[in-house]
Structure formats: C-alpha cells, structure tokens
Amino acid sequence: MNLKSLGRLAGVLALTAGLAGCIDMTAEIEVLSETTGKATTTMTMGAEFYPMIKQMAESGEQSAEDGFCVNENDVLTENGDGSATCTTVIEGKFDDLKSSDSPSEDASFTVVSPGVVRVAMKSEGMASEVTEGQDEQTAQMMKAYFDGHNITIRIKGKKVTESNMTVSDDGTTAEIVIPFLSLMDGTAQLPEELFAVVDTR
Question: Is residue 30 predicted with pLDDT exceeding 80?
Fold first, then answer.
C-alpha cells in the first residue's frame, strides 16, 4: 500500500464518516546489495477506524481499489485492541522495488562506486500523492484523519555513509519522521529529495 492508496482511502473515509481516526505509515527501503533491496510499507489503522472500514468492505460500500490492505502483496494483521496493521513487502532487483504498489515507486537507486548505492526519494509531490483527486472540501476533511499521525521514511543497509536524514547510532539506518499534517499543508520544510548512501560491502 502506497501514498496514493492511502490518499484514496482517506478520501473515502472523509466523505463517509465524521470521526477522526488513526493512520500511521512507515516506508522502509533496505539495500541488500549493489543491485537488490527490500521495500516494506507498514500502515496501522486505529481501533476507532478499522471496524468501520471492515464493515464497508464486507457490505460492498467501497470499491476494491479504495480498500485497506487489499493489494496482492498486502498482509493484514488484526490486532487484539481492535486496530489493524497492513504490511507490504517487495524484495528483489531495484526495478522490482519501483512497482506501483511499493513505497519506493518513485525512488532512485544509483551505484556511486562498487558496492555503494545512493537511494533517493523526491519529497515534492508527497502531499499531492495523498490528496490527489480530492476536492478542497474533502482535502480539508482528510486533515482531521491525519492530524497527530506521521509518515516515517527509512533507508537502511550494512552501513549508511551519508544522508540528509537522521542516522542511527549504529550507522545502519537513516530516518525521518514527517507529520502528515505538515506534509499536507506545506509546512514540512523538506529538502527536494531525501537520500542515503549505503555501503553494502
């Protein structure tokens, strides 16, 4: 499930329900070698949200493309507290990671030296991915669903040698946490692209 899917789902919710919900998303790219990687999307929908979504899906009130965790690579976990987690994992050649269902659909992978890969994701357009196709009123309503929740973008590998995100103490992960609301209203102040250089050797 990617940002476009998330945007469609939030738009449906904004039009059919008047309650705030819980949506948090993590998009992770792990560089495994000079030519391969793994892209993982994890999205959690809160207990105040998920039962309604499940009921809508079962009753046929929403189209398949607007559903939660309905794509081929999606794995749904219904949690004990009533929430649900959708996990999508795509592993293989870098071109495989750029499929339309992947969090790295718009990512670029560049070999800068033997065994060293630069991964970059353009930040412009992230908000439009979420709000694409929504009118102004629906977009405003959607903000209530994303308020207080975040998208985490993470690039990891054997060793991160350079990044404009926060690098972990052990040097294996570069990460940024972006409030959805700041992304949607244009106050996120992100660089043109988020990147990390990963040494796979």
Answer: yes
